[in-house]
Structure formats: structure tokens, C-alpha cells
Design a protein that fits this description.
The chain is mainly alpha-helical. Helices cover about 75% and strands about 0% of the residues. The chain has 21 helices and no strands.
Length: about 400
Amino acid sequence: MDNSIKQKRLQHRGIAAAGLFCAVATTLIFSSDADVSKQKSSVSGPVAMKAVVDARKLMRKTKWESAAVLLKEHASAGNPEVLYEYGRILSNGWGTPRDLDKAREKLLLAVQHEFPKRHSTAYELGKLYQKSTGPDCNRIAFEWFKKAADWGHAKAYAELGKHYARGIGVKKDIKAAQAQYKKAAELGSASALLSFANLLANEKDTAASSVDAAKLIADAVPLLEAEAAAGKAGSAKVLGRLYRDGRLLAADPNLAMRWLRRSALLGDTGGMHDLAQFLLAIENTSSNSDEAIKWLHMAAERGDGSALTALGRLHVSNKFGLLPEAAIQFFKKGVKAGHPGSMTELAKIYFDGRLGHSDKKRAFLLAERGAALGHRGAIKLLRRIETKNQKLSKSNQVSATGATLIVTQN
């Protein structure tokens, strides 16, 4: 059997398996709230709780590897606090290779218990399923966010708002999105305030709303600053992006750099990637490029698809002394991480026969995967591949017809 056909079948089996796993996981927890409520007793004890406290201290000091080792040692005891923290580490690749399957396992075990972080565990499961592939994963992420919101998690309402606003795993509904963002904002979610403001600024359906977008932003910034100062890497990243982009706030390169660096130092791989790109954009100096590449490598080592794609592109362009031949390995890892940018770049290499690699069938499969994820570059490339295939097919048909005519004339 043709290797490309085998690969395509395996790809479809993998997607189907991911969807099946999503469905099974949902059945386990959503089949009956009564079943969940029966398991209220949590495995506690001074040893486990000390491990959690110590691990959180290590994480605040960005000592991720030590925290990961400590939590792994105590995860088998079944304490939900330990399982929750270890699940987060595995899901984000903090101090250990990212492993979504193991992260699901730990978080699903933790959420069965009634403990202070239960709503956060449901929220993390929603975020994890957003990262997963499979036809049902977005719907399941939505269901976990609903569960987290029911249990009082403010940011879960913001995620529900995002799902409704973009039609992810649920039918697009701007009014429902607005209601969810508003609820999250009322509960003090700074990110929800910004998302709500962004929705008001971009959706005509909400133009007549009495809510003041500028006030939402003004209320969000001090909350984000407080969260970032307390060690929340995601809040620092949001602030950095706000000051970098200048859409909802006036652009300020110095504040953008400050908050993106804070996010990177706190271990957020998205923050590392954004800081690196910002360093390369503001001034092309050897100092900036060296630091940028360092941050990209740190994020790539933790499995960040955006960083792997960015490194591959830098190698392809032969910038900063990086060799083009090394781009392939970064793109392959990016594909493994599920990043459509890497799928597109690797497909281009295979289709155009660059860097000594030519494989039209693999190029088509990669472009098809990237296009399925909505990547514009992949969609454009897929059209180019299909157009060329159609021209070749017509050419072959003409050649075959011409050959037949010559035979019959003889």
C-alpha cells in the first residue's frame, strides 16, 4: 500500500481516536452529577499538603523542574490538590515535557473530589481540551467551562463568552457571549473585561449597548497589574500584548517589554514567544536577536508550537547565522505539537522541493491539516496544490487522448 495512503488512514484514525477519547472522558464526568457528588471525600494529609505548598513556592520562584519532580513524587497518593497542580504542569510543559494525556488523567482524577480548587480543575480541563485535537474536543471544552462556571470560576464565564462569540464547539451567539463576558466581569475577571470590551468594539450587534468599553478597559488594567505582580504569568502576558498592539490601550513599547518579560520569567511559553518576537521587531541588534533566540528555544523545549514555528522560519530565512537545513526538525516538532504554522511551512518545503526535500503527497496532507485548523496560509497553499494537481490531471488526460488518436489513425 502507498505510504501516503497509510499515513492518511493513520491520521484519520488518530483524529477519530482523539474524538472518541473526548467523548469517553465527558461521559465519565457528565453522565450524572449525582455520581460526582458521591465522591466528596478527598485524600488529604500533612505530607501531601506540604508538597503542594512547597511546589507552589517553587513555581513562584520559576523553579519549574523542581516543582514538577516534587509533585510527581506525591501524585500517586491521590490528593486532589497535588493532582491539580501536577496536571497543570503537565498540560503547560512547565519543567517537564508537555503531556496532554497524562494531564487529562490527573485532572480527571482531581475533579472527582470536592476541594477548594475543584472549579479551577474543571477550568483547566476546559483549557486542556481546547489544546486537543478531535471532532468533539471544542464541544467538550465548552462543557467543562460550563461546569467550572457553575462551581463559581469567573474566568470560565469568559471562556464561555469566547466560545459563543466565535462559534467554537457551540453555535455562534453574540448576545449569549455578551452575557457570559458580563457575568465574568462582575466576578472580577480582568481578562473578561478586556474580552468584553473587544467584543463591543468589533461586533455591530452590540454597538447599541449601554456598556462603556473604555471603562471596562480602565477597570481591567489595575486588576491585571495586581495579578501579574502576584505571579500570574498570563496576566502579565495580556498586559504586554495590550501595550504592544495599541488597540484597546495606547501603545507603549517600554511597558510592553516590561510585562512580556515578566510573563516570560514566570514561565509562560506564550510570553516567551511574544517577548522574542517583540525583541526582534523593535530593534535589529545582536543583543536583541541573541536574547530572542534564547527565549524561543526555552519555549520550544517546553513544546510551544508557536516558538517551534518561529525558530523554523528563522532558520529557513538564514537569519542570525542559523542554518536553513535545521528548519525541518523544528517544523516537524511544531507539527507534532499541533501548530498549523509548522504544518504550512513544512508543506511548502515538501511541495516546492526546498532544502533537498520533495514529497508532494505529504505536502498535500500537511496543508490539508493546517487548512482544517483554519490557518490562512495553509488554506492558500492547499488551493495552490489542488490547482496544480488539476492542471496535471488535465494534461495527462490530453496526453492519453492524443496517444489513442495516433494509434487509431495508424
